[in-house]
Amino acid sequence: MDTNTPFTGSCACGDVQYQCQSAPLAMFNCHCGQCQLASGGSFVSAALVKESALNFISGKAKYFRSLGDAGRWTDRGFCENCGTPMFAKGEIAPGLISIKPGTLHDKTLFKPTIDTWASRAPAWLHLDGSIPKADKTPNLLNHKANG
Ligand SMILES: [Zn+2]
Ligand SMILES: [Zn+2]
Asked: What pLDDT, on the 0 to 100 scale, is given for residue 147?
């Protein structure tokens, strides 16, 4: 993996600043209904890392728990001050946390390798035909970020 570590990021107001010590284990776009709501847009992009590799330089996220389309809980973390969606951790992946790549200081770090819940994507969204599509949430660790 060629991701430079540690890598860093922050929310829009700067209250929440993080550093991650290891490269993402998977990078994906999720089009499920809960991700649409949580993003306020049409999908969530996420870089999955070990929760133990993520440290906070300042502040911390506030979490909201929702039940996903597969009936499992997901805790979604955002900055309490500015509302930037930043993290998610779920029942499906204990010990892992996903980072929303819009919060990365180096945006080039994020390279998705799969679209999950792709059938829920709106008809107008042009999905990258060169990466796999999944109907639900497969084991993302089978889709290594570096191909
Ligand atoms: Zn903030
Ligand atoms: Zn989702």
From this structure: 40
Write the single-letter amino acid at 35: C
| Ligand whose nearest atom lies closest to the CA of 15 | 1
Q: Which residues constitute the domain of residue 28?
A: 7-142
Task: Quote the pTM value.
Answer: 0.89
Ion ligand 2 residues within 5 Å by Cβ:
30, 32, 35
Q: How many domains does one find in the chain?
A: 1
- Helices (runs of H) and strands (runs of E) counted in the chain: 1, 10
Q: Is residue 91 part of a domain?
A: yes
Domain for residue 1, yes or no?
A: no
Using the mean position of ligand 2's atoms as its centre, give its distance from the Cα of residue 143 in Å. Answer: 16
Percent of the chain at pLDDT > 70 equals 93
User: Residue 45: pLDDT above 80?
Assistant: yes
pLDDT of 62 higher than 70: yes
Q: Which two tokens stand for residue 116?
A: 């999950």
Inside any domain, residue 2: no
Nearest ligand, measured from the Cα of 62: 1
